[in-house]
Amino acid sequence: MKTLRYVVILVAILLIFSFRVWRRRRRHDATPRPVRLARREFVTGDVGLVMSRELRERLRSRFYIFGTAVILLVVGAAIIIPVVHHSKTTTETIGVVGPLSPATRSWVVTSAHASAVSVRFVDLPGVSQVTTGLASGSIDLAIVDSRELMVDNSISSNDGSATATIASAVAIRLGDENALTAAHLSAQQATILAEAGPVPIVALHQSSSRSVNATSLIGVILIFIMLSQYNTWTLIGVMEEKSSRVIEVLLSTVRPVRLLAGKVLGIGIAALLQATIVVAFALVLSKAVGSNLLHGTGPLEVVSTLVWLVLGYTFYCWVYAAAGSMAERQDQVQSLALPLSLPLIVGYIVSLTSASAASPSLLLKIFAYIPLTAPFAMTTMVGFGAVTWWQFALSVVITLASTVAVARVATSIYRRAILRTGSRVRLREFRRAR
Amino acid sequence: MLMSAVFVETSVRDDFTFLVALSVATPRTRAPWVKSKSRSRDRVEDVEIAHENYPEPMTGLLEVQGLSRRFGALKALNDLSFEVRAGEVVGFLGPNGAGKTTTMRAIFGLTDLEAGSVRWNGVEVGAPERRRFGYMPEERGLYPGMRIGEQLVYIGRLHGMSLSAVQRASETWLERLGLADRADDKVESLSHGNQQRVQLTAALLHSPELVILDEPLAGLDPTGIDEIGAILVEQARAGCCVLFSSHQLDQVEDLCESVIIIDHGHLVVTGRVDDLASSGARRLVVRVEGDRTGEWATRIEGVSLSQANGGELRLTLEENVDTDDVLQAARRIGRVTEFVMQRRRLSEVFREAVK
Questions:
Q1: In terms of Cα–Cα distance, which of A333, A48, A328, A249 is closest to B187?
Q2: Sign of the alpha-carbon torsion through A217, A220, A226, A232
Q3: pTM for the predicted model, two decimal places
Q4: pLDDT band at A212, cuts 50/70/90?
Q5: Dist. CA B239–CA B237, nearest whole Å
Q6: What are B134-167's pLDDT values in tens digits?
Q7: DSSP string computed for B25-66
Q8: In order of start, what are the domains of chain A with their CATH numbers?
Q9: Rounded mean pLDDT of chain B?
Q10: pLDDT digits over B214-227, tens only?
C-alpha cells in the first residue's frame, strides 16, 4: 500500500510537470515557426546522414569490436565454466579400518554420487596407516571401526569441499546406525527409524517471495555496462565535435536538435546491436551446452532487459550530450562524468544488493518508478516476478515522459553551449540566461 | 580528290586564322592553350555538379545590416553593416578581437544577435540559403579521426548533394590538390597545410554561391598561400562570392579586389583596393645614404614618417607639402639614392584605419 502511495504521488508530480510543458509549448506554437520537414525526411535527410556516419564510425572502431569480443568472452565463460565444473566428477578415497557394513558402504557411494563425487574404499590394517595415508594424501578421509572419522585438516561449518560434504553426511549416518544398534531394536523398527523424514509444513497462503531470476541479474549488469559505455561515447563524441570546431561546419547546414538526434540514434543503434548480439549469444550458448544458468528464462526477462536498455539509453543520452556540449577538453569531461554516473551507480548497487534478498525491498520498489534508476530496479523487479503488467507499463510511461522533458532541456542547453568556446560552460549561466 | 584536299586545307587555314584573331581580340596575360582548356573543362564539370543540386544562377549579393552582439560588457559587434558582391574576392580585415569571427559566425547563424540582419539576394538568410554557402572556420573544423574521402562525402551530402555528385566532386578536388592518394587516410595524419587544403575542399565541394573563410592562409608556406589564393580567385571568377579574413595584408592586397576593415565591431573602411591605395595622403619613398632613422624628414612641416625599413623611408605628405623641399632637405643629409611617389599599401590603409 505504501508503494502505491509513492507511485500516486509520483504520477501526480509528473502530470503537473507535463501540463506545464504542454502549456508552454502551446504558447510557443502561437508564434510562427519554420515549416517542419516531413517525418520521412527526418530519417532519410540530415538526421539519417548524421546517424549513419555515427553508426559507421562506431561499428568500425577498435574499441567497439574489442569491447564486444570481451563481453562475449565473459558471458561465454560465465555459462561454460559452471557446466564444465559441474560435469567434472571428483573421486574421494575413503580408508576403512575395521568393519563397515556393505549397506553403509553402498549408501555412501549412492549419496556421494548425487553430489557428483565417486567414492573408492581402501581397507587399511590400523590407525597408523590412516595417519600416513591422510598425511600423504593417498586417502581423503578414514572410517575407524564404524565409530570415528578421521580427516587431515579440521572441517569448518561453511566448508563446501567434497571431503567435508561426505564426512559430515557419513558422520551423521554412522551416529544414527550406532544409536540404532545400541537400542537393540528389531529390524523392522530400525528400518522405520532409518526412513524417518520431516513432517510437511502446510501454509495457508502461497508465498510470493522468490529469488531473482539469473537472467534479470545478468540483464542488470549488461544494462549498467552498456549505459556507462555508450553514454560516455555520447559525452566524448559531443565534446570532440566541439573541440575540433567541426561543429561550426555542421551547424552551418544542420539544426542542432537534428544533429544531436542523429548522433544519439547512431550510438543507440550501435548499443542495441551489441546488446542483441550478447543476449542471442548467451541464449544460444546456454542451450547448446545445457547450462541451467538461464534455466527458466522466458521471453519476458529478455524483452524487459532490452526494453530497459533502450529506455535507459534514451533517457541518459540527452543528459550526457548536454554535459558534453559544456566541455571542450578531456579534463573538463572527467569532472562532469563522475556526478553524471552517480545515479547509474546507485541504481545498479541497490538493484544488485536487493537481488540477493528473498523479496524486493521498499527502496527497490520506489526506484523502479524513478527514471534515473528504473532501468536497473524494474529489470530486477521483473526478475523477482513481483510486477504486474500495469506496473511495468506505468514505469515505462513515467520514463518516456521524463525523457521528453529531459530531452527538451538538454537540447536547449546543447544549443547554447555547443558554440561557446573557452572555459567550461556552467549550468548557472543557463539559469541566468533564462 | 583534289577538290577535297583544297577544301580541307582551306578549312584548316580558316580555323587557324580564327584562332589567331580570337587570341588577338581577347588579350590574356597567361593562357597556355592546353592548360586553359583542361581547366575550363574542370570548371564546367563543377558547375554541372552545382546545377544538379541548385539550378539557380550563381550571382548574388550579401548584405550585412546593423549587426550587434554583446558578450557581457564587451561589444563584439556594434551596428556593423557591409555588402559583398558575387564575382569578387573580398578581404575581411581587422585587428585581433575586432569581431571578424563573430561576424562570420553570425552569417551562418552560429551566434545569437541582439540586432541586425543578414540577407542574401535580398532574402533573410535561413537554413536553405546556408546550405548553398561554404564555411571554413579558423583552424581544424574536421573530424580528426575520420577518413578524408568519407568526411568530404559526409559534408557534401549535408549540403544536399547527391552521393554520385559529391563523390565526383571530392575526387576532382583531391586530385587537384594532390591528395588523391590520401583519401583513405585520417585527417590527423596529414600535415597542417594539407589539413587546410582538405578544409578548403570541404567548404567548396558543393560549389557554393558564397564562401566565407576564417584565416584560410594562416600557417601556410608560400606555395600553399599561392595555391589557396589561386583557388579563391578562380571561385570568384566563376561567380562565387568570396569573403575571407586574414592578417597577411600583403597577400590580401594581391588577392582581393575589395576589402572591409572593421574595428571594435564597427565598420571603419570599405572599398576597392585600388581606390584605397590611390586615395589618402601622398606617399613618398626616399632612401638617403647613411641615414636609417629618417629623423630629418619629421622636422619638415606636413611630413610624417610612416615606415623606416632598413634605410627605406616611407613618408606621408600633406596637401601643402612641396616635394622639392623634401628633396632639398634629404640632400642636406647625404646622397639621395631613391626618391619616388608611391600608392598607399594596404598595410598602411589598415594601420591608419584602426589606429
A1: A249
A2: negative
A3: 0.70
A4: low
A5: 5
A6: 999 887 788 988 999 999 999 999 998 889 999 9
A7: HS--SS--HHHHHHHHHHHHHHHHHHHHH--S-S--EEEEEE
A8: 2-82+212-420 (no CATH), 89-184 (3.40.190.10)
A9: 80
A10: 988 888 888 888 88
Q: What contacts 24+ positions apart, CB below 8 Å, involve A131-140?
A: A133/A95, A134/A95, A138/A93, A139/A93, A139/A94, A139/A95, A140/A92, A140/A93, A140/A94, A140/A166
- Say yes or no for a CB contact (<8 Å) between B141 and A253: no
Q: How far is B25 from chain A (nearest CA, A)?
A: 44
Chain A closest CA to B341's CA: distance in Å? 46
Query: Considering chain A, what is the average pLDDT of its residues?
Result: 82
List CB contacts of B329: < 8 A, sequence separation 6 or more.
B296, B297, B299, B300
What residues in B contact A240, CB-CB < 8 Å?
143-144
Q: In terms of residues, how long is chain B?
A: 355
Could you give the percent of chain A with pLDDT greater than 70?
Answer: 85
Q: Do A244 and B133 touch (CB under 8 A)?
A: no
**Is A407 in CB contact (< 8 Å) with chain B?**
no
How would residue B6 be classed by pLDDT, with cut points 50, 70 and 90?
very low
Chain A nearest CA to B45, separation (Å): 24
Q: How many residues does chain A have?
A: 434
Range among A389-403, B37-51, B207-221, B253-267 rated most confident: A389-403
Q: Which residues of B touch A34 (CB under 8 A)?
A: 126-127
**For B81-117, b where at least 16 C-beta lie within 10 A, e where not — what string?**
ebebebbbbbbbbbbeebbbbbbbbbbbbbbebeebe
Rounded Cα distance between A420 and B255, Å, is 32
Buried b / exposed e along A354-384 (16+ C-beta atoms within 10 A): bbeeeebeeebbbbbbbbbbbbbbbbbbbbb
Give me the percent of chain B exceeding a pLDDT of 70.
Answer: 83
Contact at CB, A254 and B158, closer than 8 angstroms:
yes
CB-closest option in B109, B138, B142 to A246: B142
Hey, is the C-beta of B206 within 8 angstroms of any chain A C-beta? no
Q: For an interface test with A, which of B157, B209, B213, B243 has the most A Cβ atoms less than 10 Å from its Cβ?
A: B157
Query: Alpha helices of A115-213 — where are they, by DSSP H?
Result: 127-136, 162-182, 187-194
